[in-house]
């Protein structure tokens, strides 16, 4: 991808909503050069694709927007992973990879971790509550989700920051244009994370515990632990951890941002905290943290009147579908009192629906309960404009400077 196209991709990612509007209003489907894909922007079309996994494969779901340089790829060759994961699998393989994750993120397991999550949420707010100002992403949003999913997986708290950092670096390496030296540095961070996860795989194989890492190892390994097993398990753990913390981090950031951009709704939420569940759903719909995934056609199909050959790449834009006026009246209006509330697609749909959606919602609930109760005077810092992280995978502020 040349620099000019990189620039257009960067602009699109910082604010994709005008493109989404044009695509929904156009006849048929719109092909977007910056994404090298057909954009699926209408709610009905997104739902149709998600309900037909046999025709729209997930094999390219995580295809990079930017191919790493040979030097960065050489560094990645010293790590682990590179195997199909639940997000990129179809059919029986997808069911096999998904089953232990669904069990690991079951309602019972989420309920069991909530006291720890509440304790950590309160402790993190304690670190800045008396200061009168904070940068929420680094002080809170990038910390709570990693600590919580790390607890479920079974990571030592000392290893969580490195694993979280490696996850953010993996996203940057694959979805942001970086200079070669920065690509190499990012690849080194990713490989360091992978070696940490491989250590957990080997330890849990030798001495299983009551944690999700042990369950994943048991679900994959029958007999001796092979190098191939280790590659597969590191890929699974990396995917689970990145999904578990990056998405929730983005959701916390975008939710607080939108509430504070609409001060009357923030004030309403502080006065009536029982509205927090509705605010979570509206924020997830209005500025979707996970904007979309790619799909590839397995045969010739017709979608929205557009003929697509086998092998056509699509970008399934949850963020666009969630602004579709046909399903959400006044879709471009942020309104936590919205009623009736139509079901949105922020957490996907069907066989690839997010198994961690309950965990994400609970962490956001705890966050809003803490902030509305303890910092009702919260507002955006006027001298620090918000810049969005430009990727189509996780949309969130780079930084969110707040005062009170």
Name the descriptors.
404 residues, alpha+beta, Cytochrome p450, five-stranded mixed beta sheet, three-stranded antiparallel beta sheet, 16 helices, 53% helix, globular
Describe the structure.
It comes from Streptomyces hokutonensis. Keywords: Heme, Iron, Metal-binding, Monooxygenase, Oxidoreductase. This is Cytochrome P450. Belongs to the cytochrome P450 family. With 404 residues, the chain is α+β, with helices and mostly antiparallel strands. It has a single domain, classed as Cytochrome p450 (Orthogonal Bundle). The protein contains 16 helices and 10 strands. The strands form 3 sheets. It has a 5-stranded mixed β-sheet. A 3-stranded antiparallel β-sheet has the order 4-10-9. The longest helix has 35 residues.
Gist of the model:
It is built from 16 helices and ten strands. It has helices spanning 3-14, 17-25, 43-50, 70-76, 91-104, 107-126, 136-141, 144-153, 160-175, 180-206, 212-220, 227-261, 263-271, 276-286, 318-321, 357-374, and strands at residues 30-32, 37-40, 56-57, 133-135, 292-297, 301-303, 306-308, 313-317, 379-380, 401-403.
| Strand/helix succession | HHEEHEHHHEHHHHHHHHEEEEHHEE
Percent of residues in β-strands: 5-15%
Give me the number of helical elements. Answer: 16
Radius of gyration: 21 Å
CATH level 1 class label: Mainly Alpha
Mean pLDDT: 93
Tell me the CATH architecture.
Orthogonal Bundle
Give the overall shape, derived from the CA principal axes: globular
Side by side, the strands of the main sheet go: 1-2-8-5-3
């Amino acid at each position: 991808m040349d620099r000019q196209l990189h620039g257009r991709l960067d602009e699109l990612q910082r604010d994709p909503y005008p493109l989404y509007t044009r695509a929904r209003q156009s006849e048929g489907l719109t092909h977007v050069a910056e994404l090298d894909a057909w954009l699926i922007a209408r709610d009905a079309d997104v739902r149709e694709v998600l309900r037909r996994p046999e025709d729209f494969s997930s094999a390219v779901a995580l295809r990079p927007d930017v191919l790493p340089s040979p030097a960065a790829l050489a560094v990645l060759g010293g790590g682990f992973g590179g195997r199909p994961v639940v997000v990129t699998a179809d059919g029986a393989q997808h069911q096999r990879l998904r089953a232990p994750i669904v069990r690991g993120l079951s309602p019972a397991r989420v309920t069991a971790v909530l006291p720890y999550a509440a304790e950590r949420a309160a402790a993190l707010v304690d670190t800045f509550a008396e200061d009168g100002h904070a940068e929420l992403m680094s002080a809170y949003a990038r910390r709570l989700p990693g600590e919580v999913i790390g607890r479920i997986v079974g990571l030592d708290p000392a290893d969580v920051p490195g694993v979280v950092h490696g996850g953010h670096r993996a996203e940057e390496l694959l979805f942001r244009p970086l200079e070669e030296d920065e690509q190499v540095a990012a690849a080194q961070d990713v490989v360091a994370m992978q070696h940490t996860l491989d250590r957990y795989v080997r330890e849990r194989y030798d001495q299983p515990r009551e944690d999700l890492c042990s369950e994943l190892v048991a679900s994959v390994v029958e007999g001796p632990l092979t190098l191939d097993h280790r590659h597969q398990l590191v890929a699974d753990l990396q995917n689970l951890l990145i999904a578990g913390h990056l998405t929730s981090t983005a959701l916390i950031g975008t939710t607080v941002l939108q509430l504070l951009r609409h001060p009357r709704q923030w004030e309403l939420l502080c006065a009536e905290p029982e509205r927090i569940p509705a605010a979570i759903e509206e924020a997830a719909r209005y500025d979707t943290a996970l904007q979309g995934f790619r799909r590839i056609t397995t045969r010739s199909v017709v979608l929205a009147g557009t003929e697509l050959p086998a092998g056509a790449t699509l970008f399934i834009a949850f963020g666009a579908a969630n602004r579709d006026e046909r399903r959400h009246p006044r879709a471009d209006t942020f309104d936590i009192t919205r009623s009736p509330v139509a079901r949105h697609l922020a957490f996907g749909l069907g066989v690839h629906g997010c198994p961690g959606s309950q965990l994400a919602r609970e962490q956001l609930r705890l966050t809003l309960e803490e902030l509305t109760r303890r910092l009702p005077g919260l507002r955006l810092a006027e001298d620090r404009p918000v810049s969005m992280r430009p990727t189509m995978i996780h949309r969130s502020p780079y930084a969110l400077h707040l005062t009170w």
